[in-house]
Amino acid sequence: MNRRVTIVTGTRAEFGLLRSTIDAVAAHPALECLVVAGGAHLLPPARTIEEVRRSLPDGAVLSAEVPMQDPDRIGRDADAAALGRGVLGFAEVFASLDPAAVVVLGDRIEAFAAASAASIGGRRVVHLHGGDRAEGVADDAMRHAITALSHLHLAATEESGARIRRLGEDPATVHVVGSPAVDGLDAIATLDDEMFAALGSPRTVVLHHGCGLDPAAESAWIDATLAAAAAHGPTVVLSPNADPGSDVVRDRIDAAVAGMASGSEAGIMRRDHLPRETFVALLQRIDAIVGNSSAGLIEAAILGCPAVNLGPRQGGRERPDSVIDIERPDPAAIQRAIEHAARAPRTTTHPYGEPGVGARIANLIAKAIKTPIDRKRLAF
């Protein structure tokens, strides 16, 4: 009998990273793939749960949805309340599905809630992209807490794997498999002329999330970003996620779009969300991605698309040569960085490994679940 593996997805960003793992687990002869979606996937206006439903391969089942966030509340206290709802919801789902392993990725509250419910419930937790560093809002703390809750650690880079071992995890449970982001990117062609024109023939994509800063600082960053990107040329601006501070970012984007309609801005096209294939295809045609998304340091780096990374959100994350960091919200400095990125030769040097990551993950899970999970204890 195939063993059930539950893969948890809570956001559009990590669902894109998880796609090849879902495909590989669904195709593995010893595994059954159950997907549980929740968190930010269920939030308007994008409701990316619909993309999850459309994208699952044969053999993968969307088994449950777990509501967490209140769409009318954003902030640290709101995240804490959403986390509590998530732990309860995932605990009920896992008790019903009784998986042999629960797979989570990254550092967000959805992954933390699922890892907490699974680990405390006595189920094996498999953590992807553990050991990374990224300041975010509370990302470093949650990512390393998930590491402490997990039983199998599948790191994206050698540096991240070494960091997991230094955290006291049993070295036998730590495997550097690469980032699943590398899988399938070479199969996505560059965006065709018709779709590119439909998006306004952009020179940049802006993807900027809240950082939990005070409203004035959040406003300063997004205002400077939009001004610099628009000065460089047409830009597609994607809506931010639901992190603390993203309500301010969203409001400033709305104001910029309204200003464009009245003639004070030009060349900004707003999209709440782009399907992953469209987003990846677009990265291959633009001068740079601008903002503070991990996509600029992972997917864009793998594709050779330059990234102008703004502010503290990705502080500590490994940086390929394609990334230019800007530490203050200065429109002129950001514009100069965009212009430099547009002239720079494209490089695909990155630390995220070679394709085939999803298959490596599925094989390691299948091997691990043959034995009972050990009680967690530090290796030192």
Notes on the structure:
- The protein is 41% helix and 17% strand.
- It is of the alpha/beta class and 380 residues long.
- The protein folds into two domains: 3-184 and 355-368, 3-Layer(aba) Sandwich (Rossmann fold), CATH 3.40.50.2000; 186-343, Rossmann fold.
- The strands form two sheets. It has a seven-stranded parallel sheet, with helices on both faces. A six-stranded parallel sheet has the order 10-9-8-11-12-13, covered by helices on one side.
- Helix 8 packs across helix 12.
- The longest helix is centred in the N-terminal third of the chain and has 22 residues, at 76-97.
What key phrases describe this protein's structure?
alpha/beta, 380 residues, 6-stranded parallel sheet, Rossmann fold, single chain
